[in-house]
Amino acid sequence: MKETAFDVLGIGNALVDVLAHADDAFLTENDIEKGAMTLIDAEAANALYGKIGPAVEVSGGSAANTIAGVATLGGRAAYIGKVADDALGNIFAHDIKATGVHFEATRQAGGDTGHCTILVTPDAQRSMNTFLGASTTLCADDVAEDQVSAAKVIYLEGYLFDPPKAREAFYKAAGIAHEAGREVALTLSDSFCVERYRAEFQHLVETEIDILFANEDELMALYQTTTFDDALQIVREKCSIAALTRSAAGSIIVCGDEIHVIDADKAQVVDTTGAGDLYAAGFLYGYTAGKDLKTAGQIASLCAAEVISHVGARPEADLKALAKAKGLI
Amino acid sequence: MKETAFDVLGIGNALVDVLAHADDAFLTENDIEKGAMTLIDAEAANALYGKIGPAVEVSGGSAANTIAGVATLGGRAAYIGKVADDALGNIFAHDIKATGVHFEATRQAGGDTGHCTILVTPDAQRSMNTFLGASTTLCADDVAEDQVSAAKVIYLEGYLFDPPKAREAFYKAAGIAHEAGREVALTLSDSFCVERYRAEFQHLVETEIDILFANEDELMALYQTTTFDDALQIVREKCSIAALTRSAAGSIIVCGDEIHVIDADKAQVVDTTGAGDLYAAGFLYGYTAGKDLKTAGQIASLCAAEVISHVGARPEADLKALAKAKGLI
User: Fold this and answer.
1) Number of domains making up chain B
2) What is the dihedral of CA B59, B62, B68, B71, to 10 degrees?
3) Res. B158: pLDDT tops 90
4) Residues B15, B18, B23, B29: what is their CA dihedral angle, to the nearest 10 degrees?
5) CATH of the domain at A72
6) What is the complex's ipTM, to 2 decimals?
7) Which residues form the domain of B302?
8) Of A75, A153, A214, B29, which sees the most CB atoms within 10 A?
9) Residue A183: inside a domain, yes or no?
């Protein structure tokens, strides 16, 4: 097999997050589903922006957050996603490259870079309102074969099932990766996304996915079970590795008969945005660095704890130093 | 005297902050004066952006931060400053209005909204690199006489002495305010700014300023003294009220023979950006609400402590609730 240039390559919706605080009453008044990711159009995005309080702009996008985390840990990381030729596109491209991620920005001429208005309630939960913008123009042609085949693992976000062309990009990337003997990882993204595309996700996990990331709600939505354990018993038959997160209850990593129960790292929770994304970053970094599954899970927990201790979905601390201090890398 | 519509009206350079972490070596390599505000042009701003790490975009501008703080405390606040018709201009206008500030954005056609690249070093100090952009087009015509004459206090930032037309706006506003029987407050902004315009500032303080905000370095630069106490004895002869900040050593408020020594509120220091701005917010809110000088100073200390406990120069907590909990309002 050829040498790899990257440990992890992510493909996802390239978004800038617009973070603001809101109370539960605001969510109710504006018909915003708490804890979910809802797609909105440009008009609704502008209307919502007119109602929210002062905000902070910071690069986001689920897979992009993960890839930024891999790079911060010292992994060789690359990202494919689409932004527009505007100020938010500049911010996105700057931030991901500044983290050390390989990103060949193909800019959509005209239009707006996608952005996600994230409302953080006092319980630190986030409700996301995504205007996909330029990210919807991601298509199979944007999947650079040389990059995909040069990554140990490619990492795809379930949200890519929303823009129709992105799904083709998704399958093309998975095909190239497997052809080159690489592995394909997927995060289910959110339970509402799973509800929208359950049959497709079930088929995908069974046929293309080597490493699955999901939280309890997503996994139970995927297999329509009433308990987490029931879903766990199903998923272990479906893909090589499943890394299943349970918020404060930690995570379960299952790989055939091997199973690990990993504690959550303690954190002062400020904003849960990016918890799953950074868990995946830590796991994929550890896995591609040749760590055992338990250690990869512990690095994952450490990264998730860091990102929920501040506002924003990208790491602020030196994750590599934190992991070293704990003897994990 | 006519009824007032506003407690405080601020006039300043309207900027969006681009916040990133950096170490001291980075400052040295890039000839950045630690702790100072340095003016840079568009080219230098772009070059610097290409070198810094991932950043967070958040509305800033010294007087704008203060005015946002006044509004967060429940004061009636207005702001005058100039942005361009671009994405950063939208962010600035949204955030200040969302805080409850009256802001009639007059947008410069073309050009870029000014932004300040703030590098936060591990000691929580900030070094500011300001590209003034559209904020330099603020001129006397932008000073709305009806707004200025309707504010109990107008608040001006020393940074306005950098763009030449803004200085005219500054004097026009002070003239209107005094004509209407209002008070004029000034912050010296930074010691390098004072060095650039020492004679003008000395004249201004003596002739136009009722309430002066300064930190130790700025005050000592203004009067070229070697000790804080020497400068204090001079300033008390020059303007009605001086509110003088001394970082962790708290602040001194002097009004003729009345003098108060106010303790700093304890804070876990994350980023000192905005400390002086929010101190002024707390003081001006208390002062215009009819509180005594000591109480106004205590509100000021509380606001400064809040803003240095997180990244960014605008308050994130409910300052009004915090001040109420301490029995200050």
Assistant:
1) 1
2) -170
3) yes
4) -70
5) 3.40.1190.20
6) 0.82
7) 6-13+61-110+135-325
8) A214
9) yes
